[in-house]
Amino acid sequence: MEIVRAYFRSPAAIVGLFLLLVVIAMAASASWLFPRDPLALAGRPLVWPFTNPRFPLGTDNSGRDIAAQIFYGARISLLIGGVATVIAVLIGIVIGAVSGYYGGWVDNVLMRITEAFQTLPNFLLLLVLVAVFGSNINTVIIAIGIVSWPAPARLTRAEFLSLRNREFVQAGRTLGLKDLKLIFGEILPNALPPVIVYASVVMAVSILLESALAFLRLSDPNVASWGNLIGLGRDVLRVQWYVSAIPGIAILLTVLAVSLVGQGLNDALNPRLKGR
After folding, report:
1. Are 65 and 46 in contact (CB under 8 A)?
2. For residue 222, how many other CB atoms are within 10 A of its CB?
3. Which of 10, 32, 61, 276 sits a CA distance of 20 to 30 A from 215?
4. How far apart are CA 7 and CA 16, in angstroms?
5. For residue 216, with 0-12 CB atoms within 10 Å meaning exposed, 13-18 middle and 19 or more buried, which class applies?
6. Per-residue pLDDT for 273 more than 50?
7. What are the backbone dihedrals phi and psi of residue 178, each rounded to the nearest 5 degrees, phi first?
8. What is the full DSSP assignment across 204-240?
């Protein structure tokens, strides 16, 4: 409860949580508010927002309802952000934990692999993976998770380096606990708070990466994603700018929400900030 109280002391964290809950509510209510396929033709192309009550946010180049795509796109963004973050954090925790616990040549080998992944920009490596393995939504999610693990790995390693010689770890060794029990049962729970906080950064970046792919028309065209809608609006950006602006605002608010929630978690979980 102390963590919850510490979280709600921050007005920015409350705003972020509110915005995130709005996005979740949009995703949950999409099928109820818009029972038709969001990619189905719904009316005349390029109807401006608020000019037709049937299409409160207007229609895109093909005559598809933008509001429906925004609501269904919330599902895609949360799915991509959530699953890609889990993949990245799991890979990062395993590699960082093993590297930080054992040190020596194990640490050197795993950190050289991590640095090799960080040599290329995330988006460039993502383009390579999508070009090789395809651009369906499952492949895109896995690819984003694969390119995003080095930062959580380095963070986990740093925490393990600071914790591996603490008294409770030495006591565990004295009691004969195996390495796996020490790593995942004793040290990891104490190393998790900063990793959990950083997961919000990974989630925000994952949403942006998928949106960038979709803008280049390299993501899955068969799903209603905000990035796909922005890419579609690129062709009419000078005249019907709203086609790209509306999903762009949705992405901006979602990334802002995730970032503010991460900031609130950092304030609540970081012992150095408690009491401020």
Report:
1. no
2. 11
3. 32
4. 11
5. middle
6. no
7. -75, 165
8. HHHHHHHHHHHHTT-S-TTS--HHHHHHHHGGGTTT-
Q: Spell out the residues 6+ positions from residue 172 whose beta carbon is closer than 8 angstroms to its own.
A: 181, 182, 186
The DSSP output letter for 48 is P
> pLDDT digits over 138-183, tens only?
999 999 999 999 999 999 999 999 998 888 888 988 888 888 999 9
152 and 92 Cβ atoms separated by less than 8 Å: yes
Question: What value does the mean pLDDT of the chain take?
Answer: 90
In angstroms, the first-to-last Cα distance of the chain is 17
- Signed CA dihedral, 224, 141, 257, 244: sign only: negative
Adjacent-strand bridge partners of 65: 59
HEC profile of 14-32: HHHHHHHHHHHHHHHHHHH
**What value does the mean pLDDT take over residues 109-122?**
90
Q: Is the dihedral of CA 28, 30, 39, 125 positive or negative?
A: negative
Residues facing residue 59 across a β-bridge: 65
Residues 230, 215: Cα–Cα separation, whole Å: 6
Model confidence, pTM: 0.89
Kindly tell me if the per-residue pLDDT of 274 is higher than 80.
no
Burial classification of residue 74, based on how many CB atoms lie within 10 Å of its CB (0-12 exposed, 13-18 middle, 19 or more buried): buried
Q: What distance in Å separates the CA atoms of residue 104 and residue 180, rounded to the nearest whole number?
A: 18
